[in-house]
Design a protein that fits this description.
globular, 2 helices, five-stranded mixed β-sheet, about 150 residues, binds copper (II) ion, three-stranded mixed β-sheet
């Protein structure tokens, strides 16, 4: 008995839903399907360079360059990143006069990139907790000469 009543109630509700739904679909303004779209697709040259790896994992990549004038310094003296996998992408301009590298150090972390000649590039990645770190060039006396900076992780 109870089941029958439920079915009836649902049926009535269903009927109610059908009322008033009669929308006006008529006004679509004719034919949108004109053939103009022919070659629109397929020409998409998807060669956008995606340097900022936005997707996936949430790692941060920071760009850093040795001084293009050949001085023993980087082009930035401070960097900021979010906690997690932090990559410093170092480039050594071809106008530079010395090989360079970059090392991340602090909070028990010590990671360094390959040493790169002028014109080269190299990455170093470390998993970093929030805090203050330093980055510097571990080649020769470059750090003492000023090739260092602060990396702040939030
Ligand atoms: Cu150096």
């Amino acid at each position: 008995m109870a089941t029958a009543l439920t079915v009836i109630a649902l049926a009535l509700a269903g009927c109610g839903d059908d009322d008033g739904g009669g929308g006006s679909n008529g006004s679509n303004g004719g034919e949108n399907s004109s053939a103009s779209g022919g070659g629109a697709y397929g020409s998409g040259d998807t060669s956008k360079d995606e340097e900022t790896q936005a997707g996936g994992g949430g790692g941060t990549t920071l760009k850093l360059s040795a001084d293009p004038g050949g001085a023993f310094k980087f082009d930035k003296s401070s960097l900021t990143a979010k906690a997690g996998d932090v990559t410093i992408a170092l480039t050594n301009p071809s106008s530079a006069t010395a090989p360079h590298a970059v090392e991340i150090e602090g909070q028990g972390v010590e990671e360094e990139s390959d040493v790169i000649e002028p014109g080269g590039s190299a990455n170093v990645t470390a998993k970093l907790e929030p805090g203050e770190y330093e980055f510097y060039c571990p080649v020769g006396n470059h750090q003492d000469a000023g090739m260092e900076g602060t990396l702040t992780v939030n």
